[in-house]
Amino acid sequence: xxxxxxxxxLSVEGAPAIWLGANFWSRSGGPLMWTRYDREVVRQELRVLxxxxxxxxxxxxxxxxxHPAPDTLDEQCVANFADFLNAHTAVGMTTVxxxxxxxMSGENWDPVWREGRDLYRDVWFVxxxxxxxxxxxxxxxxxxxxxxxxxxxxxPIYGGxxxxxxxxxxxxxxxxxxRAGGGTQPVAVGDGAWGIETTxxxxxxxxxxxxxxTDFVGPHVYRMETDQLRQHLKAAYVAELCAGTGLPVxxxxxxxxxxxxxxxxxxxxxxxxxxxxxxxxxTGWIAWNxxxxxxxxxxxxxxHHPFEMHFGITDRAGAPKxxxxxxARFAADLAAIDLPNARRSPVDAALVVPSHLAADYPFTQExxxxxxxxxxxxxxxxxxxxxxxxxxxxxxxxxxxxxxYGLYLLPSVKQLCATSWLQLEELARDGxxxxxxxxxxxxxxxxxxWWANTEALFGVRPASAYGLAEPVEDEVVTLRLTEAFGTxxxxxxxxxxxxxxxxGRTFLPVVASSGRVVAVDxxxxxxxxxxxxxxxRAVLCTYPLxxxxxxxxxxxxxxxxxxxxxxxxxxxxxxxxxxxxxLVFVDILVHEDxxxxxxxxxxxxxxxxxxxxxxxxxxxxxxxxxPDVALPPYGVALRLLRFD
Length: 644
Known about the structure:
Layout: E1 10-12, E2 15-17, E3 19-23, H1 39-51, E4 56-62, H2 63-66, H3 75-90, E5 94-101, E6 103-104, E7 107-108, H4 123-140, E8 149-152, H5 155-158, H6 164-180, E9 187-188, H7 196-199, H8 207-210, E10 220-221, H9 228-242, E11 250-251, E12 253-254, H10 263-279, E13 284-287, H11 322-337, E14 342-344, E15 349-353, H12 366-385, E16 390-394, E17 407-413, H13 418-429, E18 433-438, H14 454-458, E19 460-462, E20 470-471, E21 477-481, E22 493-496, E23 506-507, E24 510-512, E25 516-520, E26 526-533, E27 536-541, H15 545-550, H16 560-570, E28 584-591, E29 596-602, E30 608-610, E31 617-619, E32 629-631, E33 636-642
Parallel strand pairs: 3-4, 3-13, 4-5, 5-8, 8-9, 10-12, 11-13, 15-16, 15-17, 17-18, 18-27
Antiparallel strand pairs: 1-2, 6-7, 14-28, 19-24, 20-23, 21-22, 21-25, 25-26, 26-27, 28-29, 29-33, 30-32, 31-33
Helix pairs in contact: 1-3, 4-6, 9-10, 9-12, 10-11, 12-16
């Protein structure tokens, strides 16, 4: 069994487009660059980016300057932007202009005539926004340097949250204004993709809703973390969640300030994010941002958010910083892969995202949605550690799962629709391995299995008391195999640190009926139970392993990956490249001509050399045999995999 993983590519004027660039404010003025425009400095800045393989920028119509009165554009700003476009053409680059730029780098600015009007609901004000968008589009839509459009910059921070129908109506009117102005290029909202599908919090900006009338999804990822591996894979998992829309995913903003991290740390973060999101299906990357602003220290927002001065991929003089060198290497690898004609390899394993994350089911709590995100992310990480490539798949609203996978992972799952539980038994009967670990989560609401057919599916009966959560009192939970299971021999032990509140730091007591107990906890209670179904099986873990890890700092790698590795072996998941090191991730991109590009991504803070196990031959891109893969600290390596 195997199924495709989507990685759609943008189309601009009928041709595939891989965007690799930077968000752009000139060092001559930052957000005030259009009234302090220095055409020579702009050309120097663009030349440095182009010389390092970047092919585009994201640019910004600073709203207070471009729209000084309700029915007026500032013609000097417009003329400066026209010159800016010409400068892109001269170096072979394009740009994606952003219209409503009221939020930037820690401060909000209004046109002087806004006077407190609601951004989304005030009919007159929305009309003025649409006029502004239409007029600017009409001025520049025909210019060859314009590759796309963004309505806003991080508008939930500027305009606030709003109900989804209000946001959808407002955004669709502005998209219509782009089209009315003659804009045929791809358009998106620029909100950051911080809504319910990626966070569990409904801010009104649903990527699923907005996908109905936009052309790509653009995550902005600046998350703070407590675990290095989660930090490195954070953007990749966000990209996977966004890919559920079926639209191309462009990493619209990401970056680091050099005030927070050393030069090698900044380089490592860029490297990890670029390659992990490539393997997660992203097909565009726009770094934040092009330069440093030391010479604007007395200008807001840099005066009160001084760390915002140093997100640049070049310094105050335009010299490359380590992140730009990482982007240059990435550009070369994208060219070698020929990404428009490559796709992610098909996979046998699916990581299931319950529909309760984003569906409008009554009495679903935000805490429960956040649990789905956190435990899914931890499972995604454990699958990487186990070298089990997964498709992140969404349960359909009101139930139903995609078919075609040999392994289904339901990590620390509390909520799933009844019809999906019934379908899982059918999938197992048809040959799939279905794994679920139980979790109450942090919420105290209805603590108990929300599962439709626990005994039929897993061969167990719950042994808990109604309304009570069974606490985990051990400081370390040890699961001991009573028989061999996949790659785990009889007698093997898996150890975990329990975590969470009084609701989450719990387990599910069960009595096996027809299920076979293959592992017990330190008290002899069933911990892993297998129920055979036709050609497949269902596997229950009575401990919320993924939830425990998601609640802990600096925990990864923890031993869930060993269980996932065993599950993959039991399910006979196809893995063309295998490693015994959980801190080296691996995945494959397949070119339409048959070439298979293997990407190795190290999570080791020191150099490491690995010898992967494969039925084919690993080669350098030049075709030389390369059975050993040397990786620098947090490094990446690209190889070809050839089969005779």
